[in-house]
Amino acid sequence: MEGEWIVDELMAQRVAKAEELRAAGIDPYPPRLTRTHMAADVTLLVEALPEGESEVEGIDVDVAGRVVAKRDMGKATFLDLLDGSGRIQVLIRQNSLANYDSLRLIDLGDFIGVNGRPIRTRTGQPTVQAAHWTMLTKALHAPPEKYHGLADVELRQRKRYLDLMANEETRQRFIVRSKVVSAIRRFLDGRGFLEVETPVLQEEAGGAAARPFTTYYNALDEERHLRISLELYLKRMVVGGFERVYEMGRIFRNEGLGAKYNPEFTMIELYQAYADYHDVSMLVEEMISSVAHEVLGKSTFTFRGQEISLERPWRRVTLHDGLREYGGLDLDEYSTAETLRAELERRGLELPPAAGYGKLVDEAMSHYVEPRLVQPTFLMDYPVELSPLAKRRADNPRLVERWEVFIGGFEAGNAYTELNDPVDQRARFEEQARLKAAGDDEAELVDEDFLFALEHGMPPTGGFGMGIDRLLMILTEQDSIRDVILFPQLKSIKG
Hints:
495 residues, alpha+beta, CATH 2.40.50.140, BirA Bifunctional Protein, domain 2, 2 domains, five-stranded mixed β-barrel, 26% strand, elongated
């Protein structure tokens, strides 16, 4: 209770200062300010001064930003303002400001505007020597104390605005995120891909093995699902004649929370006609390595204590070989769900009771192989039971032309040579429906409209999907997906 009283008392003091400004006829929340220069602009002006000169003649600047430091020096006050380009120091001398006493109304966290002359101080620091200041926003709470006020990781994630306010590292991380997203778009746009938008609310949430969120569409008096994938609508675009399409958007999967999982995340999916999964693998490794170079100027990163190189070419290994290498498990000896389940249970793995053969292979891969794939690796050729939307291998119909790419010990993306045989696709959907009826709530749903589209003909196509957030974990060297999502999903605080 004592701590709450202190917070309330400090807030009351700031409210009183706002009221004092109003009593003096000054709006503490004016609607606008004409800003002529950013902090970085002023720094450049001062740094361009010839040696021995300390003032930029003939130029007055109007700057604005949040007050992040305040130092009273008797007859002078120094402020540090932070704007979108960086910090700039402000010097206010007592003999240059008629109402110098009004500076006591400025607190850390306030936004102010300053008019003055760019100068270089005796210590060489770029500064605005103020002739006038204006309150722009009176903050009613003090900003978080940088080193102790945000020690709580959950607090940083739950109240990201405080994290952004206090930590330059956090701000830079999300600037990198934005630049990575833009660079991916430029890469694909430059190779003839067209960005499109598809429905978020869908009749059937298909295209992935995941449990959807469900809502009710009042106007239609029907149930709808938030999309778990972008795939089926983008492939409709290919059927319609668009040969290279992609979408970057939010995906919703009603699943667990964790270091690698957030139920709401950003995904990119792309589809290229007349390409297969080999073509797509070359496109993807080029895209990720070039984006890393463009945005961060490097291709080597340290993730969870291990150095990762994104330089091409990336390793390619079949799923069968990966299980043999890392798990000592030969799938040729365990070709049925019954034999594979018996072997995995003998090894002590906990398995879903309704899992079919494909799901059991996935459990084995996740346990034995995935954690070992630290360097970028394409794990290729999956069982058909695990991949209801991928084309079978011509030389082995039990396998499909599919790969997942692993970086840093977890899956970063997934690709197929897309199944374009509508008869085979219908049979695969029906098998998925049987699995769902048997209790597998992540099995694919039958999408009759997609099947109808496929019956009109889709050319040979390669497709790829990747979680942007997981890629950002690698590029920004963060252990948790929550640290690369501005506002991650967290359990509500009640009471």
